[in-house]
Design goal:
This protein is an all-alpha fold. It is 72% helix and 0% strand. The protein is extended and about 90 Å long.
Length: 420
């Protein structure tokens, strides 16, 4: 593609990114997405040819038009949004190659898009740092503080978040770690904020301070579902600092608080890294103790125990845990155990298969329950056939038909499947 044809093509493609709000949200979706990515490709050709100054204004139009279009276009597949996320930094790259003489309009655009836009695109200031320069950065900082003052007098949703986000990105430009920490610390509303501070201090080799911030964040947000990344940072810092036992203690404490498979994964990974198999043994023992001491939650606890045992490759122990707590197993956990056990120990799965059939037959509100029950009965018949115990299966099936003779739909399915 020649440079001139690339420029002409980009202009035409960007013209095609206008979206009539009166069109249906699904109309022309595929064509629109194709146009967005074609514009991205054409702009890339221009940048590669050293014609960033001509590509930049078209990229700006593309970003603005897709931003507007997404207010009326159903982008459930996310492909138009993906294109927008690719075009926005490409616009920054074009401006970096051909910086504007006056960066104030760029600063104004960033502020307006962030504060007054529909919530997209997400603008990373690092992509526009070269184009903003000192003057543009100062202008943007002033606009942010102006909005910050306004946010104190308005209840507009999200304004405070955007103010904090841009403040943090601007503070990162300065290279002053203490100033950055001060800005981030103004909004310690979630573990991720602590994580930003920990990362910055860690990269500056200020390990003691990073550990202190990580510890504080974990204490403040102990019950947060967003805590694991911060805990990972804490553990990594402890390991790097040679504090092996403390790192393992953090994992044990987390598992004690939430004895589930996901927490076990983190614990097992750290234990493997630090060559501590006894930590894994402790975790499995702890889960067994919880299971014995808390019968009210045995269904959930046995599911987690089985998942953890399977994680470490102890299929026999996982099977035994399931058999011991057979009444507490869900259909899905039981099915997984049967599928794993059947190839090597077919005789072991006879009773669990019968339990699985009973669970489906007792289930209400599932229109496929008889279909699944029959499927498992056919699998059980195959197992008995392989073991040479067909008469045992026949006796079981006769009793099952008698017990559920009033379930005429079930009986009919048995007949259709040749289970007469």
């Amino acid at each position: 593609m020649s440079e001139e044809s690339a420029l002409t093509g980009l202009t035409e493609l960007v013209d095609g990114l206008r979206r009539d709000r009166r069109r249906g949200p699904y109309a022309g979706y595929g064509e629109y997405v194709h146009t967005t990515w074609a514009a991205h490709e054409a702009a890339g050709h221009l940048l590669a040819a050293g014609r960033a100054a001509e590509a930049a204004p078209q990229l700006r139009k593309a970003v603005d038009r897709i931003t507007a279009a997404l207010m009326y276009l159903d982008d459930s597949p996310g492909m138009a949004g993906d294109a927008l996320r690719a075009l926005t930094p490409l616009y920054g790259k074009a401006l970096a190659a051909a910086p504007p003489k006056n960066p104030a309009p760029l600063a104004n655009w960033i502020a307006k898009t962030t504060f007054d836009g529909p919530g997209w695109p997400d603008i990373r200031l690092a992509d526009f740092r070269a184009a903003l320069g000192e003057a543009g950065t100062a202008r943007l900082a002033a606009l942010v503080e102006g909005r910050a003052a306004a946010s104190e007098a308005t209840e507009r949703f999200g304004l405070g978040f955007h103010v904090q986000d841009l403040r943090e990105q601007l503070a990162a430009f300065t290279g002053d770690i203490d100033a950055y920490v001060t800005v981030v610390a103004r909004s310690l509303t979630n573990p991720g904020q602590y994580g930003k501070i920990v990362q910055a201090l860690g990269e500056a080799d200020r390990t003691a301070e990073a550990l202190d911030w990580a510890r504080r964040g974990i204490e403040v947000h102990t019950g947060s579902p967003y805590l694991p990344p911060l805990r990972d940072q804490f553990v990594a810092l402890l390991i790097a600092d040679g504090r092996r036992d403390e790192a393992l203690a953090v994992r044990r404490d987390a598992f004690t608080r939430t004895p589930v498979h996901k927490a076990f994964l983190y614990l097992a990974a750290t234990a493997a890294r630090l060559d501590s198999p006894e930590t894994v043994t402790w975790a499995l023992g702890h889960l067994r103790e919880r299971l014995a001491a808390d019968p009210a939650h045995s269904s959930a606890l046995v599911r987690e125990l089985i998942a953890c045992l399977r994680e470490v490759g102890d299929a026999d122990a996982a099977w035994q845990a399931g058999i011991t707590h057979l009444p507490d197993l869900s259909k899905y956990t039981l099915q997984e155990l049967i599928d794993e056990r059947r190839p090597t120990h077919p005789a072991d799965v006879i009773a669990p298969y019968r339990r699985l059939v009973d669970l489906y037959l007792a289930e209400g509100g599932n229109k496929y329950r008889y279909q699944y029950a029959v499927r498992h009965l056919k699998a059980l018949r195959t197992v008995h056939g392989a073991l040479g115990s067909e008469r045992e299966f026949t006796g079981y099936l006769t009793a099952l038909r008698a017990e559920h003779k009033r379930k005429t739909s079930f009986i009919a399915r048995l007949d259709q499947a040749g289970l007469a």
